[in-house]
């Protein structure tokens, strides 16, 4: 993230390094302040329960979480770290709306868009 920060400088962009498994999302992201969280090829590395509950707390009431991930069962050589189907099916728990779209013909990578508050 540090190198991206120096490469893509823009007054309205801030880059921060954060280990989501080591700690909660930093406090300067106030509750209900985040419009969109893009989680692309990262979910398989994370403590999902913790990350999802953190994101739910920080997103605006109409906020969106976009998750794009390889599917574990569809990676025959396990070259890419994937999330199990069963866990993908449960991603929508606690969200008002969940839309899934498989991104390749054999469904090896999927995208899930989660929207809206619940609980
Ligand atoms: C396959 S790369 C994807 C990078 C980028 N999102 C993309 O789509 O090109 C996996 C990323 O997950 C990040 N990652 C892994 N564990 C993490 C953690 N505990 N907290 C934050 N990021 C993590 C790594 O830093 C790495 O950038």
TrEMBL record:
Residues 13-67 form the Methyltransferase type domain. Gene3D superfamilies: Vaccinia Virus protein VP39. SUPFAM superfamilies: S-adenosyl-L-methionine-dependent methyltransferases. CDD domains: AdoMet_MTases. InterPro entries: Methyltransf_11, SAM-dependent_MTases_sf. It comes from the Bacteria. One of its GO terms (molecular function) is S-adenosylmethionine-dependent methyltransferase activity. Pfam families: Methyltransf_11 (PF08241). This is Methyltransferase type 11 domain-containing protein. It comes from Streptomyces pacificus.
């Amino acid at each position: 993230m540090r190198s991206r920060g120096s490469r893509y400088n823009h007054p309205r962009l801030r880059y921060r390094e954060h280990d989501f498994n080591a700690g909660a999302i930093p406090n300067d992201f106030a509750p209900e302040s985040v419009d969109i969280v893009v989680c692309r090829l990262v979910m398989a590395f994370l403590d999902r329960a913790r990350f999802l509950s953190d994101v739910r707390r920080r997103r605006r009431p109409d906020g969106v979480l976009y998750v794009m991930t390889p599917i574990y069962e569809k990676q025959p050589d396990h070259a890419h770290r994937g999330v199990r189907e069963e866990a993908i099916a449960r991603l929508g728990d606690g969200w008002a709306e969940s839309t899934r779209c498989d991104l390749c013909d054999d469904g090896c990578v999927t995208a899930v868009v989660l929207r809206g508050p619940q609980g």
